[in-house]
Specification:
single chain; 210 residues; 7-stranded mixed beta sheet; 7 strands
């Protein structure tokens, strides 16, 4: 598996140390920084304004969604540096194409583990909810550059969360790494189900239907 967060695709310096995607272990907490589908939301706002207006989305909401590329932005270099500085990180993965669902699947498979994620703990910005509902898109499968998945030992989790929030970085525990025999699961509206799978990124599916 590739080392995590080289930062080179963003034109930024990489952290001096790397943590592999494959290093998560059962019992680890799963932290997510920022909200999901930031890049996908911004792209849709910029490229499908006509369709969004026709669906009843306000121009103000569309403008805010388009600005997500800048605020909070899609660079994960700072969150990676901050998390690594705590010495509590076991693995990291940056969701991109395939969205949060694809990234969690990749991390668990690379680590030889299972995972359970609580949907209620996953931050989805209002702009993302509005645009995805208007275009019939599932946020979990939408390109998600801008968020970062971090795994830590339970005792180290609070330290990582505190460090990130101190730097103004939104971070939340969204689940647990489990034994691989338990599979990849999501808690949705109180029910445990299989982690959603997408044949291709939701943004690609959407544009192919136009």
């Amino acid at each position: 598996p590739r080392p995590i967060i080289s930062g080179t695709m963003l034109g930024e310096a990489a952290p001096s140390e790397t943590v592999k995607t494959s290093s998560a272990e059962p019992g680890d907490d799963v932290i997510l920084t920022s909200g999901i589908a930031i890049e996908g939301t911004a792209i849709l706002a910029r490229e499908s304004k006509t369709e969004l207006v026709a669906a009843g989305v306000s121009e103000d909401k569309i403008k805010k969604a388009a600005n997500l590329l800048d605020d909070p932005g899609i660079s994960i270099v700072k969150p990676a540096h901050v998390a690594m500085s705590t010495g509590q990180v076991t693995a990291m993965h940056d969701p991109t194409e395939g969205g949060l669902a694809g990234a969690i699947d990749e991390l668990a498979r690379a680590s030889g583990t299972g995972v359970i994620i609580d949907d209620d703990q996953v931050l989805v910005f209002d702009e993302t909810k509005t645009i995805c509902e208007a275009l019939f898109i599932e946020p979990w499968g939408l390109i998600a550059s801008g968020s970062l998945i971090i795994t830590t030992r339970p005792k180290g989790c609070p330290k990582v969360i505190r460090a990130l929030r101190k730097e103004g970085i939104e971070a939340n525990v969204i689940g647990k790494i489990t034994d691989y025999k338990k599979g990849m699961r999501r808690i949705l509206k109180g029910e445990i189900q299989s982690l959603p799978k997408f044949e291709r990124d939701e943004i690609a599916r959407y544009f192919e239907t136009l």
